[in-house]
Write a structure and sequence with these properties.
Helix 3 runs parallel beside helix 4, helix 9 runs parallel beside helix 10 and helix 12 packs across helix 13. This protein folds into two domains: 216 residues, Rossmann fold; 150 residues, Rossmann fold, CATH 3.40.50.2300. The N terminus is likely disordered. The strands form four sheets. A five-stranded parallel beta sheet has the order 2-1-3-4-5, sandwiched between helices. The protein has a four-stranded parallel beta sheet with strand order 7-6-8-9, sandwiched between helices. Strands 10, 13, 14 and 15 form a four-stranded antiparallel beta sheet that branches. The longest helix is centred in the last third of the chain and has 20 residues. The chain is globular, with a radius of gyration of 21 Å. The two termini are 35 Å apart. The protein is α/β, with parallel strands linked by helices and 414 residues long. It is built from 13 helices and 15 strands.
Length: 414
């Protein structure tokens, strides 16, 4: 299977009392020990202990599939002999998407479990809550699950490196597209009322430059616990907007598509990349109602017919059937996690026998590789002057059946 050699060692659950999700997974043999570098340095054999926090409970629990997918990937690696002879010990704890809980669990991972690095921690607010602590401890924070732009100055945040393009940079991509194709557009924006939503909006405004105040005619927000966004869609239509910049998560993205169709509002609909999956957003909304949507992408959607015979996609489905059969192979979160975890495996392989924290960061800044589940031409490239591992995307338009890419790759470095 392309690129895949993984590390897994099961941890006996000797502890009494309630088990964390991942400890329970260890008991059932589903979790695999994760890729962390041993404390100062670990010579020959042994294990690589990796820490992670994930919302297995609470309002964002749907994203818990990310941690389960990572555990499955490390299980595969371990079955194949590990990385450079070391098994991965992956310890993933539930933080319920609560920053105070993230602090508690992260300290437990670092001071109690002795992890060498944190990988793929989920959420802007939660990663923010532990950023300074981990930096002070000189614990690498690799490939976290947020596109927040606040850490893109790598020289100021040398113990952190993101993976996906930043939300701000993606907003600029949409702005540049509108300036080229619809310079007289009247833009209505709906965004989540937090750093995630505001990053996208600021990117749009920065990209539009002096024209932003004239082109953006309405800005509305929603809260993550709102039941619907129907009233916002009605208000955006009433504003006279002929372009809709939809910065929402999956549930609200599907609602926005349905409601726009229901009230006969037919703007040019720009939808952010994290909510563009066919299986989890467009199908629930209605494929016929999604025709004409435009998004920016960097990964292959495994449900897209154009990738039916793609070797990377076939390998991904084979992996899901063997190592994560209870997971949803059509979920873009799982497909993206597959590539993100593969990226960490590359870093650890490059470390060779030196799995010190310092060398982990050196190698994390020396990647230049195409991955099989990224769109053609998009590479994972890292360096101390690069804001994240992926800094290119491509615009695509939904045909009613699949996404059709257009234009070339667009750089998203701010």
């Amino acid at each position: 299977m392309t690129f895949l050699r993984q590390l897994t060692a099961l941890i006996p659950c000797a502890r009494s009392g309630p088990l964390t999700l991942v400890r329970a997974l260890y008991c059932t043999g589903l979790a695999s020990l994760m890729l962390a570098t041993p404390l100062p340095a670990q010579a020959g054999g042994g294990e690589i202990k990796i820490g992670n926090t994930m919302p297995y409970s609470g309002a964002a629990s749907a994203y818990g599939t990310i941690g389960r997918m990572e555990a499955a990937y490390f299980k595969m690696l371990n079955e194949q002999g590990g990385i450079n002879g070391r098994k991965i010990n992956f310890i993933s704890l539930d933080d319920g998407y609560n920053p105070s809980k993230t602090v508690e669990q992260t300290r437990r991972l670092v001071e109690g479990d002795g992890v060498l690095l944190m990988f793929s921690a989920f959420g802007t607010a939660t990663v923010s809550a532990v950023q300074k602590y981990l930096s002070d401890q000189k614990v690498p924070q690799l490939f976290f699950v947020t596109g927040a732009s606040k850490w893109e100055d790598r020289k100021q945040h040398s113990w952190m490196i993101g993976w996906q393009p930043t939300y701000h940079a993606e907003g600029m991509i949409f702005a540049n597209y509108l300036l080229r194709s619809r310079p007289d557009a009247r833009i209505g924006v709906l965004y989540q009322n937090d750093d995630y939503g505001r990053d996208y909006l600021q990117g749009l405004k920065d990209g539009l430059g002096a024209k932003a105040s004239a082109m953006i005619v309405k800005e509305l927000t929603y809260q993550v616990n709102d039941p619907t966004i129907d009233s916002q869609i009605v208000a955006l239509k009433a504003s006279g907007a002929d372009v809709f910049f939809n910065v929402t998560t999956a549930k609200f993205a599907a609602q926005a598509i349905r409601k726009s169709d229901e009230i006969g509002w037919k703007p040019l609909h720009l939808i952010n990349s994290i909510s563009s999956a066919v299986a989890s957003v467009l199908e629930p909304a209605g494929l016929d109602k999604s025709v004409g949507l435009i998004t920016a992408a960097y990964g292959k959607d495994p449900t897209d017919p154009q990738f039916r015979d793609d070797p990377g996609v076939r390998d991904y489905f084979d992996f899901m059937r063997k190592y994560f059969p209870e997971g949803d192979a059509t979920n873009m979160q799982n497909a993206i996690t597959y590539s993100r975890t593969m990226t960490l495996a590359l870093v650890l392989r490059q470390c060779g026998d030196d799995v010190s924290r310092d060398n982990i960061m050196r190698q994390a800044n020396r990647l230049d590789r195409e991955l099989p589940m990224l769109l053609p031409g998009i590479r994972v490239r890292t360096g101390i002057d690069r804001p994240s591992a992926i800094t290119e995307m491509q615009l695509q338009r939904f045909t009613g059946r699949s996404w059709e890419r257009f234009g070339g790759l667009v750089g998203v470095r701010n």
